[in-house]
Amino acid sequence: MGATGSIGIQTLDVIRLHPEQFSLYAMAFGRNIEKALPLIHEFNPAIIVVQDEDTKAKLQKELNHSYILCGGEGLIEAGTAEPVDVVVNAVMGSIGLPATLKAIQAKKIIAIANKETLVTAGHLVMEEARKHQVELLPVDSEHSAIFQALNGEKRKNIEKLIITASGGSFRDKTRKELEGVTVEDALNHPNWSMGAKITIDSASMMNKGLEVIEAHWLFDVPYEQIHVILHRESVIHSMVEYVDRNVIAQLGTPDMKVPIQYALTYPERMDLPVTNHLNLEELATLNFEKMDMDRFPCLRMAFEAGKAGGSMPTVLNAANEEAVQLFLEGKISFLDIERYIEEALERHDRIHNPDLSTIISIDEETRKRVRFHLN
Ligand code: MG
């Protein structure tokens, strides 16, 4: 799910390296036919899912394929298809939520790269996973690091999770300098090559905020025990401190193929010849800094929304997705993103334990409210 996005393409890179282990049964993408076509020819998936009827019609002109589906229904059919063992959820935003829940019910292993799914409905996703005894394997590098640092350990012995943050493209800018930044400035991430939405989220530090909420759900750790530290090299991907003061960190070359492949091969490990070995002698120095919540209000708001719980993370996520879209369209400034989120959170009356339909309607309502703000 999300085959033409950054994670999708790199997942296919991993599949290509290990043809004896993996094959692609179904492939879902949005509208990027140009990017999808060579991948369809190469991997020959039995099911193709696209975003809408219009894209389906265009694709059918280019391609002789008997099974092209569309929209949310198509995602569900692909994710629950009998031959599927693992569903990689790498769509952008919360649109993958219903299909993820259905795939869990169909007992598929979920490799989760889409943090919005857990942010907006963590309680539902984890409840379903427990009920159906399905493993959620993190693809996000920080969560893959924590997952590995937790291998064989007891949750009760966790003192805290320490999530590292590279700081994104604006880490050295002051609040004043942030006033005038452009979309191009924001899309220029120093360490990771990623899609537009997540790169903007990294610049605003909302990405780290979403990761905090994701970690809370994935590892069942309270927010008070989740810490964020600035680490500009992105070499330590995160750490776990235990009650006996042992700290276990996971290190590696910053390349998303590493956590993607680990999620696909877990609990095994396989060679990844396309990625460079970590060279600590060349790096020489690793830097750490305290995270400044005043400098990065999106991170503060994410902690607050997460602690408040209920429907607040849904509002945080929906307002952020919509505001980032407006910024990418050139309609609002970079600092408007956090202002719009703050306002959406302030105006929302929290609902305790929302079900899926409530989450979907709050999500839509919040997006409308953010759009309306413009007029
Ligand atoms: Mg990450």
In short:
The protein is 49% helix and 13% strand.
Proportion in β-strands = 5-15%
Count of alpha/pi helices:
17
Radius of gyration in whole Å, from Cα? 20 Å
Helix content class: 40-55%
Which regions are unreliable across 5 or more consecutive residues at pLDDT < 50?
A: none
Count of DSSP E strands?
Answer: 11
Mean pLDDT: 94
How would a textbook summarize the main sheet?
5 strands, mixed
| Topology pattern, helix = H, strand = E | HEHEHEHEHEHEHEHHHHEEEHHEHHHH
User: Any idea how many domains?
Assistant: 2
How many angstroms does the end-to-end distance come to? 34 Å
What characteristic shape results from the CA principal axes? Answer: globular
Structural class: alpha/beta
The small-molecule ligands in this entry are: magnesium ion
What descriptors fit this protein?
single chain; 375 residues; alpha/beta; 2 domains; 5-stranded mixed sheet
Describe the protein.
It is built from 17 helices and eleven strands. By secondary structure, it is α/β, with parallel strands linked by helices. The protein has two domains: 6-134, 3-Layer(aba) Sandwich (Rossmann fold); 142-308, no CATH class. The longest helix is centred in the C-terminal third of the chain and has 18 residues, at 356-373. The two termini are 34 Å apart. The model has no long low-confidence stretch (mean pLDDT 94). The site of magnesium ion (MG) has 4 residues, from α7. Magnesium ion binds next to α7.
Secondary structure elements and pairings:
Layout: H1 6-17, E1 26-28, H2 33-43, E2 47-50, H3 53-62, E3 68-70, H4 71-80, E4 86-89, H5 97-105, E5 109-112, H6 115-131, E6 136-138, H7 141-149, E7 158-165, H8 175-178, H9 183-186, H10 196-204, H11 206-219, E8 226-230, E9 236-242, E10 247-251, H12 257-265, H13 280-283, E11 289-290, H14 297-308, H15 312-328, H16 334-347, H17 356-373
Parallel strand pairs: 1-2, 2-3, 4-5, 5-6, 7-8
Antiparallel strand pairs: 7-9, 8-11, 9-10
Helix pairs in contact: 4-5, 5-6, 6-11, 6-15, 10-15, 11-14, 14-16, 15-16, 15-17
The chain binds magnesium ion (MG).
